[in-house]
């Protein structure tokens, strides 16, 4: 009897042991919510928030331990356990990919920063949302969060999250000591793009302080000085430009800029360094000497990004140096007149400098008129205007311009007709060609621009220009509206349209709109609030917007 009872207990124990995994699996599948999937989560913010806050249940932990103890062949037949920590991390990743649609999840993500399993995923997600939050004006949480990221010493010095956090400080224009100290540390110890971004933002913030009349901290300048010794060439260049922006007079920085100019091979970087040198008030004689030496060096072939191969010669550093020399030291540029004349075949844009220089006609007119027959159509107008500016009575280019009007198409024909009006007074011809071109969808913006330059003489074009304002293309609309302002002084509509064009999502439209508002001067004073808001949305646009604001303010002062 005892043996039979013992066997029964052993049988019950065996059945229980065999049934336990099945019960655990059933409980795990029934009591556990459905697994998060990219499809469901992307469509439903609540799903993300649920998993972001989920914790393991007793069944989760028990099933995980049981599953882990089984042989692999058995594990393959069962559902793989997913711990809540991993699901919280995945939910944070999905929220980051949703961008502005996930802004309601910001409080939950901020709370998740204290969760070691989710911290970095939540940080990355919040950085993805911060820009949109700043743009919408809901940035109260962004500033303290960004400072936390910048001060996170556990992140590697090359972390892209540090770079993005530094960029956000520039976007918000924060110049308080804790943020400047964090940026200074990255400028001194960061690596690669992190260091470069920190240096760039320090330069932008320093320029803001100068513009606002605030003193620039000495330790900020010292950090930029250390960055000039960086092994990263881009960082060194940004540091030089940053010191130039804040106009700090420094013998060391001056020497560094001149040395950088002498070895620079990128025309765009060269121009930025010259601008920094001028802002810093580098000795003009020293700067001119360096520019002259660059002009005399053998040209270095380069192929700038996004520039067609056939135009790369226009971006040679020696040409950039020649253009800069005219701005820095007109006397030195005049001494180098042969350079400008000898290189017109390589870079006809040098004609613009000759036009401003106005040398003695006897020194240049024979060489310029000899080029009339061989100069390409796209440059003949520049050549004709240069000859006219230096020697107004010279008419040798007029027949060639008529040939271009009769034989060329598009914007080249438009400019030739405009040039004939400008230098020869042929108003009827210019109006006929330009008004006709307003119907050409490819070249109507250039026609509108030239008609605007003609002012009240182009009154016959007003009906067509008003029709162009109804176009959906922002560039066409603003070009037409600006022309109307130049022709008959229609102000309110153009200011409203250009203000609407200040959109962070469309950099090219924004740049064009800001430039036109600046050219309008005091007439665009109603756009000042929008320009100031736009300046706060991206540090790279701040200087451009500031130039437009300065032009408008200057126009207002002249009216008083």
User: Strand-residue fraction?
Assistant: under 5%
DSSP E strands, number = 0
- Tally of contiguous helical segments: 33
How much helical structure, as a percent, in the residues? 55-70%
Radius of gyration: 33 Å
What structural category characterises the helix and strand content?
A: mainly alpha
Uncertain residue ranges: 27-42
Sheet having the most strands: none
**Shape, per Cα inertia axes:** globular
| Termini gap | 118 Å
Mean pLDDT: 81
Task: Please give a structural write-up.
- 70% of the residues lie in helices and 0% in strands.
- The protein is mostly helical.
- The protein has a domain at 20-138.
- It starts with a helix and ends with a helix.
């Amino acid at each position: 009897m005892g043996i039979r009872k013992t066997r029964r207990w052993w049988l019950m124990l065996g059945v229980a042991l065999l049934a336990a995994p099945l019960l655990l699996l059933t409980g795990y599948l029934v009591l556990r919510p459905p697994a998060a999937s990219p499809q469901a989560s992307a469509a439903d913010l609540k799903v993300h928030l649920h998993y972001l806050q989920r914790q393991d249940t007793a069944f989760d932990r028990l099933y995980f331990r049981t599953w882990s103890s089984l042989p692999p062949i058995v594990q393959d037949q069962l559902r793989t356990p997913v711990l809540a920590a991993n699901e919280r991390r995945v939910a944070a990743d999905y929220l980051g990919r949703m961008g502005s649609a996930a802004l309601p999840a910001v409080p939950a993500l901020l709370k998740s920063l204290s969760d070691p399993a989710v911290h970095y995923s939540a940080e990355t997600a919040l950085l993805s949302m911060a820009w949109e939050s700043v743009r919408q004006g809901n940035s109260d949480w962004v500033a303290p969060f960004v400072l936390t990221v910048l001060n996170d010493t556990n992140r590697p010095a090359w972390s892209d999250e540090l770079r993005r956090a530094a960029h956000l400080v520039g976007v918000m224009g924060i110049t308080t000591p804790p943020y400047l100290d964090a940026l200074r540390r990255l400028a001194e110890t960061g690596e690669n793009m992190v260091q470069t971004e920190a240096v760039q933002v320090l330069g932008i913030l320093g320029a803001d302080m100068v513009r606002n009349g605030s003193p620039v901290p000495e330790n900020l300048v010292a950090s930029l000085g250390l960055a000039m010794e960086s092994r990263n060439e881009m960082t060194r260049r940004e540091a030089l430009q940053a010191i130039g922006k804040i106009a700090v007079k420094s013998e060391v920085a001056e020497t560094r800029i001149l040395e950088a100019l002498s070895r620079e091979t990128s025309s765009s970087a060269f121009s930025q360094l010259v601008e920094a040198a001028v802002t810093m008030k580098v000795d003009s004689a020293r700067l001119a000497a360096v520019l002259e030496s660059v002009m005399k060096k053998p040209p270095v072939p380069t192929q700038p990004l996004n520039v067609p191969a056939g135009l790369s010669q226009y971006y040679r550093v020696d040409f950039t140096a020649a253009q800069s020399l005219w701005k820095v030291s007109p006397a030195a540029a005049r001494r180098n007149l042969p350079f400008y004349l000898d290189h017109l075949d390589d870079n006809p844009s040098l004609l613009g400098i000759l036009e401003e220089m106005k040398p003695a006609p006897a020194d240049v007119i024979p060489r310029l008129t000899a080029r009339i027959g061989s100069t390409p159509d796209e440059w003949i107008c520049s050549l004709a205007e240069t000859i006219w500016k230096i020697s107004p009575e010279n008419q040798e280019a007029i027949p060639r311009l008529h040939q271009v009007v009769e034989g060329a198409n598009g914007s080249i024909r438009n400019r030739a007709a405009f040039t004939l009006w400008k230098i020869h007074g042929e108003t009827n011809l210019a109006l006929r060609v330009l008004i006709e071109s307003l119907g050409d969808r490819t070249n109507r913006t250039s026609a509108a621009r030239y008609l605007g330059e003609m002012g009240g003489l182009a009154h016959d074009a007003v009906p067509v220009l008003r029709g162009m304002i109804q176009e959906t293309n922002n560039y066409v609309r603003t070009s037409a509206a600006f022309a109307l302002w130049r022709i008959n002084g229609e102000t309110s509509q153009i200011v409203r349209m250009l203000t609407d064009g200040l959109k962070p999502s469309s950099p090219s439209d924004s740049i064009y709109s800001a430039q036109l508002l600046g050219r309008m001067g005091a007439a665009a004073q109603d756009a000042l609030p929008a320009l100031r808001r736009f300046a706060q949305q991206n540090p790279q646009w701040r200087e451009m917007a500031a130039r437009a604001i300065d032009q408008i303010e200057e126009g207002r002062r002249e009216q008083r």
